[in-house]
Amino acid sequence: MDAQGRGRAENIDPADQWVLNPNTGEYELRLGDSAPQQSAVPGPRRAARRAEEAVRSRTGAPGRGAPEAPGRDVPPPRRRRAVPEEPLPGRRGRRPAKKAGKGKKIAMWTGGGMALVLVAVAGAGYLYVKHLEGNVDTTDVGTAGASSFRKDEAFNILLIGTDKRTGKGNESYGDKENTSGHADTTLLLHVAKDRTNATVLSIPRDMIVDIPDCDTKQEDGTFKTIPGIHDRFGYSLGVAGRDAGCTMRTVHELTGVKPDHFMMADFNAIKTLTTAVGGVDVCVEKAVDDDKSGLKLPKGPSTIQGEQALAFVRTRHAWGNEGDLDRIKVQQQFLASLMRQMSSGDTLTSPTKLVKLAEAATKALTVDKPIGNVGTLKDIALELKKVPPKNISFTTVPVLDNPAEVRKVTVVVNEEKAPPIFEAIKNDVSFTDVKQKQQKEKAAVAARLKGPKAPASDVRVQVLNGGAADGSAQRTLNWLQLEKGVTKSENGGNAPADLSRTTLEYAPEQADQARALAAIMGLSGAAMKPGESVTNSQGLPTMTLTLGKDFKGAGIPLTGPAKIDVKDKTTADKVQCAS
After folding, report:
1. What gap in Å lies between CA 512 and CA 510, rounded to an integer?
2. What is the pTM for the complete model shown?
């Protein structure tokens, strides 16, 4: 029986199986009184020492591995003496006596500043690779996700919190009719390619969406296709045997952003994770006494864990309009606080907390097969920790009340405000500086419309159809020539590729012509694209007008692209009080 199986069989705390060898100064895994000790996995001291020496060698700081000073005699390295031990009360192993600088080493060893709750804790679990590997459950989602984790690319991870009623004390929670659980809380995590920022997009469970057909792997290894439905997003998991791959496909269908991987946890995860870190700090604007969730909190700051933490993220009746959207805001605040607690000195310098955290996280997780090992989870955590908390943005899919309902229970996507957010994530745009970028873009767009305009008879343009209705290019050409006097125009046929928005490309010397045509066509400055001219059938330089999918007909003005609404955005470094 291996160490993991033995620990479970004998109901032994995994932390008790790691003891310090005074002869080597390293932690080793003790399987029993008669079994030999093994050191297949480096212990905390050895890992800390390696990390510290690596930093010194890169920075040139004094110490082992640092560059030699010119002219100095460097004595040969001496073997480090073992640190005296003191008994570890109530445990089989022993711990070293306190030593100056230990906290610093452990912080380096764990790679502090972990970025997102579940992923980051999984990274901490790498310290116990062989023991923790079997804790993580996996699901084969087939082509719904990526085949491997790419450290050199932007990546998207779907974080799913289910209402599955597993774990002691959770019998009264969630949907008792569905043992596999629904997608109760879902967040799409996008991490930028350059790791300067990340976006966490919450997806309301009661939003009506198209859940597409999806293939789920059966116990015999075959795949079964489950027909799609038009229903609540939460039903993309659990109902009719849908797995996390179905939820991933639904998110792709909804947003156009394909999740690369998923991580899923149930009610019990909130209780075990918050207990492992010694509680999470929260704040409420007014005292809370909610009989339905059992949450009772005084006004102001509190520290919560276990059942109380679960009640905090589950309750709806204590916040705002008592709906799911207000609960989502509170959950985002809670996650930000948990992230701050995860990266705090109290957690990173406490081996006891780290052991509990690693155990709790890996036991709580179900992930897709390509990332179903602690080594890959560690890689994800290391990439996430590169993102500053101030640049981790939380936002929610913009929605409207469902017009099909008299009693408003569900919501639908806001087709005006949601697409720009989806496009921003898809195009790796940071939400932390989107407002500043929009202001700069607005000024640049306005400048394109300012200045003299050429007479209509001097405007040379080639009209292409890039996704508009059939015949749009010819009808627009007729309108320009016969009604607007733009006689130096011609039909260029179909564009090489369809465009979502109509664009007018022109060379710098054609700016006066571009302003004139924009005024005639009702184009916004955003549709004007400074670039290059093309040669028309007479061999003269001409502008290119490509009619995109947004084109509604000749003479019908086109508005600019919708702005990204970020007024409800928050970031992981902000401390907020729930209301």
Report:
1. 6
2. 0.61
